[in-house]
């Protein structure tokens, strides 16, 4: 209800997120009054925003006149927009959802709202009336999805119809009130040229990675939260041949593959009775029966890793996935840990052997302190030697000089594989 249509990009020392209580009180009473009048006039049902606008504007002017409130003290256009957001949108969140510059929206209770723009988090001058107001917005978001959130089920992870991902958690699990996180979906996928212009990589790396995808290398993209793993996966997938059948598996469908023959699978959370959950591992096993040329696993984070590695090693070359890790070496350790936790009864040496023979390449991405996202390392996974997975760095980002360095060429085996699939 308190979303502003004005520019919200204020620095922390300019920020005043707590409006005067009397102003907030006016908005609450105004909202209740307008809703009552709309219901009395039968205007609340099956009306679009543009149809409601003139009615709401008239009611706002009438209310201010009845209460002897000076119109000059308030921006009537903003008041009308806030009311419409409450009635046909998502309240204070709506203006942020409509702002193309905003990538993430983070709500920590009624009084703290943050957004990410250009890779940087900043607090914005918005607030909700109270915790119940936040909860109403969350429930409005998830109701069309057939999901619910309450004390018996205080967490929810879902995808909005526009593709945006939302996660909500409420008391008693969240101590300071309901928390809502929204990762906005970008309808127009970035291209490799966008990444080059943004300094995420250079032209030589771009061509090399395109050749690796076309050459059906098994690739793991590693990085921290928000570093751009899914974005890079989307872009690299554009080099998959149009005759290849690709099956994607995700918790919430974000990938925008455009090679023409894509089957998209999405996990399913349990229902209110705790039944019906479908995990990534189940989808991956099913995908193997769907005659895929490649499998793209949105994120490797559990027991499905073992099945993914086996798929990479048994005829599904060119498969790709992402993993949360701070370095290429850390990503290998994480894979080992997840395979172990999958219940696979094998020695550490065998697990390392499976990883070494399945993966061809690790691409490490990072978000720098200034918000810039870059590919920091491209590493070839070679083989197992002396009980350790051998790797060879191919490209590296030099932060001090803000330059990308080419370090080594591919090993002979991978060079031959690349040439073979390129028809050289």
Q: Output the radius of gyration.
A: 25 Å
Strand order of the largest sheet: 9-8-10-11-7-12-13-14-15
What CATH architecture label of the largest domain applies? 3-Layer(aba) Sandwich
Could you name the CATH topology of the largest domain? Rossmann fold
Largest sheet: 9 strands, mixed
Q: What would the average pLDDT be, to the nearest integer?
A: 84
Q: Find the CATH superfamily of the largest domain.
A: P-loop containing nucleotide triphosphate hydrolases
Q: Which structural class fits the helix and strand makeup? A: alpha/beta
Helix tally?
13
Helix content: 25-40%
Instruction: Please state roughly what percent of the residues sit in beta strands, choosing from under 5%, 5-15%, 15-25%, 25-35%, 35-45% or over 45%.
Output: 15-25%
- Indicate the overall shape: elongated
Low-confidence stretches: 1-20
Number of domains: 2
Topology order in helix (H) and strand (E) letters: HHHHEEEHEEEHHEHEEHEHEHHEEEEH
Distance between the termini: 61 Å
Note the quaternary state here. Answer: single chain
How does this model look, in words?
By secondary structure, this protein is of the alpha/beta class. It folds into 2 domains: 12-183, 2-Layer Sandwich (Beta-Lactamase); 192-422, P-loop containing nucleotide triphosphate hydrolases (Rossmann fold). 35% of the residues lie in helices and 21% in strands. It has 13 helices and 15 strands. The protein has helices spanning 21-40, 49-66, 76-88, 93-98, 131-142, 192-197, 203-214, 229-236, 280-287, 304-312, 328-341, 348-358, 412-422; strands spanning 104-108, 113-117, 120-123, 155-159, 165-169, 179-183, 219-223, 246-250, 262-266, 294-297, 320-324, 361-367, 373-385, 388-398, 403-406. The strands form 2 sheets. The chain has a 9-stranded mixed β-sheet with strand order 9-8-10-11-7-12-13-14-15, with helices on both faces. Strands 3-2-1-6-5-4 form a 6-stranded antiparallel β-sheet. A hairpin with a 5-residue loop joins strand 4 (155-159) and strand 5 (165-169). Helix 2 (49-66) crosses helix 3 and helix 11 packs across helix 12 (348-358). The longest helix is centred in the N-terminal third of the chain and has 20 residues, at 21-40. It is elongated, with a radius of gyration of 25 Å. The termini are far apart.
């Amino acid at each position: 209800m308190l979303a502003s249509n004005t520019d919200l990009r204020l620095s922390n020392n300019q920020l005043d997120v707590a409006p005067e209580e009397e102003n907030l009180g006016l908005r609450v009473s105004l909202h209740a009054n307008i809703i009552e009048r709309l219901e009395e006039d039968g205007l609340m049902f099956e009306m679009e925003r543009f149809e409601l606008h003139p009615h709401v504007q008239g009611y706002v002017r009438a209310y201010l006149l009845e209460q002897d409130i000076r119109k000059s003290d308030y921006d009537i256009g903003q008041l009308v927009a806030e009311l419409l957001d409450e009635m046909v949108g998502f309240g204070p969140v709506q203006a942020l959802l409509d702002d193309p510059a905003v990538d993430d929206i983070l709500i920590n209770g009624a009084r703290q709202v943050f957004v990410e723009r250009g890779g940087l988090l900043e607090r914005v001058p918005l607030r909700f009336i109270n915790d119940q107001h936040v909860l109403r917005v969350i429930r409005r978001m998830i109701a069309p999805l057939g999901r619910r959130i309450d004390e018996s089920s205080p967490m929810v992870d879902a995808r909005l119809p526009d593709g945006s991902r939302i996660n909500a958690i409420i008391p008693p699990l969240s101590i300071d009130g309901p928390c809502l996180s929204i990762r906005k979906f970008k309808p127009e996928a970035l291209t490799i040229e966008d990444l080059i212009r943004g300094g995420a990589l250079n032209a030589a790396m771009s061509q090399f990675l395109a050749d690796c995808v076309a050459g059906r290398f098994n690739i793991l993209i590693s990085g921290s939260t928000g570093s751009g793993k899914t974005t890079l996966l989307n872009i690299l997938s554009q080099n998959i041949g149009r005759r290849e059948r690709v099956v994607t598996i995700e918790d919430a469908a974000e990938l925008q593959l455009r090679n023409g023959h894509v089957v998209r699978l999405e996990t399913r959370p349990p229902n209110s009775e705790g039944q019906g959950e479908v995990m990534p591992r189940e989808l991956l096993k099913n995908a193997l029966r769907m005659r895929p040329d490649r499998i793209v696993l949105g994120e490797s984070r559990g027991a499905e890793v073992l099945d993914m590695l086996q798929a990479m090693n048994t005829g599904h070359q060119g498969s790709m996935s992402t993993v949360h890790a701070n370095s290429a070496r850390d990503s290998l350790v994480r894979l080992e840990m997840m395979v172990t936790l999958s219940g696979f009864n094998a020695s550490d040496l065998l697990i390392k052997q499976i990883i070494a023979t399945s993966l061809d390449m690790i691409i490490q991405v990072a978000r720098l302190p200034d918000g810039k996202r870059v590919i920091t390392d491209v590493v070839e996974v070679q083989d197992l030697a002396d009980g350790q997975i051998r790797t060879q760095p191919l490209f590296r980002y030099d932060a001090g000089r803000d330059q990308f360095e080419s370090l080594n060429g591919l090993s002979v085996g991978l060079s031959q594989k690349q040439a073979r699939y390129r028809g050289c």
